[in-house]
Amino acid sequence: MYVLREFDPWKNPLCTCPPKYSLHPYTGCSFKCIYCYTTSYIKASQSTPKRNFINRLIRDLRKANPQYPITISNSSDPYPPIELTLKLTRRTLELLLPRGYKVQIITKSILVARDADILSKNNAAVSLTITTLKDSIAKIIEPYAPLPRLRLRAIEKLVKNKIPVAVRVDPLIPYVNDDPYDISKLIKFLANLGVQHIITSTYKVKPDNFKRVCSALPNIRDKLRELYYMCGEYKHGYRYLPKKLRRELLKIVIDEAKIYGLTCSTCREGFPEFQNAPTCDGTHLIPERINTSLAGVTL
Ligand code: SF4
After folding, report:
1. How far apart are CA 8 and CA 294, in angstroms?
2. Pocket probe mutation, ligand 1, options 23, 26, 33, max atoms within 8 Å of Cβ
3. Ligand 1 site, residue 32, Cβ cutoff 6 A
4. Rounded to the nearest whole angstrom, what is the distance from the C-alpha of residue 116 to the centroid of ligand 1?
5. Domains located in the chain, CATH noted
6. Which stretches of the chain drop beneath a pLDDT of 70?
7. What pLDDT does residue 243 have?
8. What is the pLDDT of residue 45?
9. Is the CB of 33 under 6 A from ligand 1?
């Protein structure tokens, strides 16, 4: 396979995702979130379109299992600013969706709302990340991504177009976006907008993302170092917060989601009791509007 890969988060046993493909029209990511996990594997710091992407995708689809959902994208946003003119993600959707493939978009971008026309008629759902409602925090931790209130407007448009939406409240970073009152406000907002599923997770440290977090937030550097390096634990390539604290932080989000009748799950945390949905990643929201047995037939 050239560009369509079976999703495999480096064989992390804590991952509970169902079988699915991972597809990235772009490599690298212009949003430069300070906590980004992929920068320790992918060095490109700007979103760059993959060469000959559509042709390579067509070749891969001939060998793919059409029943697997295709997630776009797990380690680079599919709607960076360059997508506005390049329309590579749009062309990808135009190839996949009318043929019955199941697609989940994963993004922080408001540009996804542009494609509501094609997403709404096909087997598609969206997972949008919102870590905080506060612009002041978002500007520090996700410096080049659209502001949270703009993302809320994008969700509004998607829901109005009957596109199922999950939201990732992810990552929760101690002292940054873990205030229970703020989390409660965020979940209430999302529920009122018609979001169906919440995925949450705590920040996991990799040396390069920790360097960025410490440099952007010097006032909490020592406290984070203590939590992650003195009291926390090392798991599968990442430093985690102490288990008790992780459970407490995640529970704030999970309890709020339940209050508003949303399904919820955690990501690579090892707390199966926090999941009350058919899938952790929200792919169960993908509707079957086009017969999936058609997938691949006309390639
Ligand atoms: S949007 Fe996702 S891939 Fe892009 S920088 Fe942020 S965390 Fe990384």
Report:
1. 26
2. 33
3. yes
4. 22
5. 4-280 (3.20.20.70)
6. 44, 294, 296-298
7. 98
8. 78
9. yes
**Residues with Cβ < 8 Å from 176, sequence gap 6 or more?**
132, 137, 141, 217, 220
Q: Closest residue (by CA) to atom 8 of ligand 1?
A: 36
Whose CA is closest to 177, among 249, 116, 119, 238?
249
Q: Per the omega criterion (within 30 degrees of 0), is the bond before 201 cis?
A: no
| Radius of gyration for the alpha carbons in the chain, expressed in angstroms and rounded | 18
Residue among 48, 73, 77 to mutate when testing ligand 1 (max atoms within 8 A of CB): 77
Report the C-alpha gap between 238 and 243 in whole angstroms: 14
* Beta carbon of 286 within 6 Å of any ligand 1 atom: no
pTM (2 decimals)? 0.96
Residue 298's pLDDT is: 64
SS (H, E, C) 276-289: CCCCCCCHHHCCCC
Q: Is the CB of 38 under 6 A from ligand 1?
A: yes
What is the per-residue pLDDT across 12-57, written as a single tens digit (0 to 9) for each?
899 999 999 999 999 999 999 999 999 877 776 799 999 999 999 9
Residue 107 CA: nearest ligand 1 atom is 1
**Token pair belonging to 189:** 């907002």
